Amino acid sequence: MSDKILFQCDYNEGAHPKVLERLVQTNMEQTPGYSEDKYCEEAREKIRKACGDDSLAVHFLVGGTQTNVTVINAALRKHQGVLCAVTGHINVHETGAVEACGHKVLGLESPDGKITAAQVAETYEAHIHNDSFEHMVQPKMVYISNPTEVGTIYSKAELTALSETCHKYGLYLFLDGARLGYGLAAPDNDLTLPEIAALCDVFYIGGTKVGALFGEAVVIKNPELAQDFR
Q: N vs C: which end of the chain shows fewer Cβ within 10 Å?
């Protein structure tokens, strides 16, 4: 093993050794594909239990970019866009994947990678009171990353305020959890997984960046989104 520790990205190792061991143990089993196997169903039940909500829809996708694109494209109509911090992953990285699907990313200025409920309210009010609003991209979703792209995390109070504002204006709240494991383990974090599940319309638990071989678990609370996602 090298004595160097590299910090370029989250992909310097393949997977946690226990993941590989379990894959070897189950390698010759024959199971249905497309997440219809018993292991995916067991994972769904474990996630619902950890979130404290048996009604949650849980789907598995291969990576963060694919998850962001799939969730946003399933949730929005073609004239609708998604609000996020200017530093947000869907705005800065992912090579314009969301916009390639026809949904404009509406960036909000942020000094710390986070956006506030007040910003969301101000932006939405400005849109609906604009004389030409019908000619403009309609904000319909709020996208946040936790942790953010600059390493900050949302507090329970901040996420609660965002959730209440989104519900007030009929906006979906989507939390990118590609690095959620880091956020939940942060010393100053005061959010729990059940609280995130209750406050967000949809979020995902990232596995690719925290030791899984690959994969993200999309967790959907909003029944309307759950239906569209199918």
A: N
